[in-house]
Amino acid sequence: MSAKPTIVLIHGAFADAASWAPVTLELLNQGYTVLVPPVFNRSLIGDSAYIKSFVEQIDGPVVLAGHSYGGAVITVAGVAENVIGLVYVSGYALDEGESLGQLQGGFPDSPLAANLVYSPYPIEGADPGTDVSVKIEAFPEVFAAGVPTDTARVLAVGQRPLAAVAFSETAPVAAWKTKPSWGIVSSADHTINPDVERFGYKRAGARKVIELDAPHLVMQTNPVDVATFIIAAVDELG
C-alpha cells in the first residue's frame, strides 16, 4: 500500500466524537491521519449514508472503527469503495437484513434496557419521532462504568440520544462480507451484552478478536489497548 490509510472513528449512541478522544490522541501521536465525524443518531440508514459519503470524499484508503451503535453504522457505510477494513469496538456487527433489536433479542438484556428514557421530538411534516437516552442517574454505572466519576457525570448530561427508529431499521448490506474485520469485546460491558459482540464478530469471520476486561466505554478506560489494536489491523492491511 503506497500510503497509510486514514483511520475514521465512528462514535455510538448516547455519546459523541469526544468519546474517542483518548484513542484519537494516541493515534495522532503515532503519526496516523485520523478523522472523527459526527453521527447524527437519527436513523441507521441515514447515519450510514452520511458516513459513507464522508468516507468517499477522503483521498485514499480508509479503515473504519465503530464503537457500539457505530459498529452498525460501519457495517453499512463500510461498503464504500475506499474502505479496506472494519474494526468493531464493543460494537454491533449486523448481518444484511438484520436490525439492532433483532441482534440484541437473541441474548439476555443488559442493564441498559431497564434504564432508558423515551422522549418525543418534532419532525416537520410528519408524526413526532422518539429519542432514546439513558437515565442520567444510571448513566455512570450502566454506560460509563470505569470512567472517572466527574467525567461520567459530564458525559451523562451531554449524551446524544438515538432515535428509536434506529433500533428497528434493518441493515441493507453487511460490509464485513467483502471487507476484512477485527473486533474488541468488552467483557465487563453493561450496555451491550458481551455475547452480542462475540456472536457478531464470529459470524463476520473477524481476523482477530480480543477480549478486554473493560466497560462499554473501553476507548476511555483502555485507550492504549484500543489504539494498539487498530494500528495492528492497519499494519496487517499494509
From TrEMBL:
The organism's place on the tree of life at top rank: Bacteria
One GO molecular-function entry: catalytic activity
Pfam family, one: Abhydrolase_6
InterPro entries recorded: AB_hydrolase_1, AB_hydrolase_fold, Sec-Metab_Biosynth_Hydrolase
Coiled-coil parts of chain: none
AB hydrolase-1 domain ranges (all copies): 7-227
PANTHER family: AB HYDROLASE-1 DOMAIN-CONTAINING PROTEIN-RELATED (PTHR37017), ESTERASE_LIPASE_THIOESTERASE DOMAIN-CONTAINING PROTEIN (PTHR37017:SF11)
Stated name of the protein: Pimeloyl-ACP methyl ester carboxylesterase
Species this chain originates from: Herbiconiux ginsengi
